[in-house]
């Protein structure tokens, strides 16, 4: 008889937290991201045996959850236990389905792949003391072994015919070239204490050599094998991936077609708003012309450190303005740090959540892409998204209430549609509250909204080969009714978005490499808005937006199958 993951039969929350502990045993990177086990210098087994161990843990946890609920069906009468049980079952079911489809054997993309997580962990590790740095040195020395395991996994995937498209491979090769220019791990070691100089430098040399080995394998061996692999993954793989990102089986019935049609309608609605905003900014101009004018003539910040300070001030000011009015923020939640992303990152800004004890704060990260001048029109709304009241308020609040829920519900159980949906809702909230006063800031907000609507259209359209709508304009006008291609998607984005070409190129690679992730933003926002509207209707004059916000942010993770209904009851 196997030992229960949670240590003993109890409740769904105990099963879930037992699963988190077991995951941290298998993948110490997860423990570091949670801020637990600070002395753990291991890296996960990224080879085929590591994938098998993860799948075995998933199966055992699902069996234990079944045993717990069979022993005491009344547990689901507790709303927290009910939410936890549904989340755990859905999340682990989606992960197991992906494993059985062999997705782990082709885990390569310009975001979120194992080669990236190994680097990212060194940006999260504590470095306050010599003992901290000793852990860094020991973990860095393990990188060659971890990457060898990862390459074994890719080799096994190639043997099985499970490959990613050449665009992904070439993009990651380019990223690894950037890492080696530093080199990245040499730069990490250089910041360490002289007392550990020998150990750190030796570990960094071996780590950077391992990065070069991965790059050379991808370029010289894997890329030729991947030739001919299509960019589009097709309906079945897309439905599987969309479930993992959204917490809903969108592949059932016409769910994906409905989302595609709704995304196109959102694109058209937002475009009308953009045209009106452009006319107000620059009479006679269209959205693209107005955004180009803002790039050249709108408010801007010169210098990387100066823009970091500006983004920090923006978040500090938002906390001061919103706390007590639209949110009630605990002291630990009020701390967030603006950071500059290291070279070789993808082009989009991102957020990393705080440690479970808040010893490491939540952080926003800005990729500079070599720039020294930063127009503000398109940064204001996205920092409401990444920082406050977006990702930081939700994910830091989750940490704050994790003792009342479960660690799983507030960390590993995250569903992109919930998290990204809240962050997009946060951008809209700041527009509703009148905070987009910086010249051009509302155009930046609409541009961000348009990006997320276009993501729904081209992500589903490319991977499923759906037809370009009959009312398409611009670069698409001559392709109405024809299937979407990456080239059409890139042209469409270029017609309607104010981002620079490097960003749009990176975004296209992202959608092709992470099918189903890009749609989670707008679909999640739709659920958040519908849940709020339902709660307002139910409570009428008694509806309290601040109380609703705090209750919504304190219920932990939910997938799209449950999010709207649970929000409506708050």
Structural write-up:
The chain has 570 residues and is mainly α. The protein has a domain at 245-513. It has 23 helices and 5 strands. The chain has helices at 12-26, 28-34, 48-71, 79-100, 114-120, 130-141, 143-159, 166-181, 184-190, 197-226, 234-246, 255-281, 287-297, 304-322, 380-386, 391-401, 416-432, 441-464, 486-496, 501-513, 520-539, 545-553, 560-568; strands at 300-302, 336-340, 350-352, 362-366, 373-375. Helix 6 packs parallel to helix 10, helix 7 packs parallel to helix 10 and helix 8 packs antiparallel against helix 10 (197-226). It is globular and about 60 Å long. It starts with 11 loop residues before the first helix and ends with a helix. The mean pLDDT is 96.
Secondary-structure map:
Blueprint: H1 12-26, H2 28-34, H3 48-71, H4 79-100, H5 114-120, H6 130-141, H7 143-159, H8 166-181, H9 184-190, H10 197-226, H11 234-246, H12 255-281, H13 287-297, E1 300-302, H14 304-322, E2 336-340, E3 350-352, E4 362-366, E5 373-375, H15 380-386, H16 391-401, H17 416-432, H18 441-464, H19 486-496, H20 501-513, H21 520-539, H22 545-553, H23 560-568
Parallel strand pairs: 2-4
Antiparallel strand pairs: 1-5, 3-4
Helix pairs in contact: 1-2, 1-3, 3-4, 4-11, 6-10, 7-10, 8-10, 9-10, 12-13, 12-18, 15-17, 17-21, 18-19, 18-21, 19-20, 21-23
